[in-house]
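Bumping my old thread because nobody answered last time. Still need a sequence for this structure:
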């Protein structure tokens, strides 16, 4: 299995969002694999995930709700519906089924960790932020269950 090193991770509720059920959560992981560094981001809007892979962080723009037309176009191009056999479209039930059917995927633990980061409660944020500087396969995922 490939090794994904966690350089940085962030998660918060977006600012400037109002109305019942309109919470937007932005979670991102900066990872390195084979000397290539990328950002895997999940922007969850009203409980539905959207996954993006980018060369630079989109966290600040997304968390501050700076969604101008140029950024929206960029998000459309960076959106991914699958990663190494794991389907990332649909709701979390669909994604979980795909994860369970693809446990040998090289990104299994990386995707699982990002979902845990997105779905965690405030008490777990401190624990989850402690994974920085570790390989995702070395993280005790049982402590990150949501």
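Sorry it took so long. Here it is:
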């Amino acid at each position: 299995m490939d090794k994904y090193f966690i350089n940085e991770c962030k998660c918060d509720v977006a600012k400037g969002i109002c109305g019942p059920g309109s919470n937007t959560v932005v979670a991102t992981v900066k990872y390195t694999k084979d000397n290539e560094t990328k950002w895997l981001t999940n922007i969850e809007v009203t409980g539905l995930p959207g996954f993006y892979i980018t060369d630079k962080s989109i966290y600040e723009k997304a968390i501050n709700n700076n969604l101008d037309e140029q950024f929206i176009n960029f998000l459309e191009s960076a959106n991914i519906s699958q990663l190494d056999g794991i389907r990332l479209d649909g709701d979390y039930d669909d994604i979980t089924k795909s994860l369970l059917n693809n446990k040998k995927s090289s990104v299994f633990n990386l995707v699982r960790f990002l979902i845990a980061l997105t779905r965690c409660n405030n008490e777990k944020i401190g624990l989850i932020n402690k994974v920085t500087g570790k390989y995702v396969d070395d993280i005790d995922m049982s402590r990150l269950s949501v």
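Strands lie at 5-13, 24-33, 36-45, 51-54, 79-80, 82-83, 86-87. Let me know if any region looks off to you.
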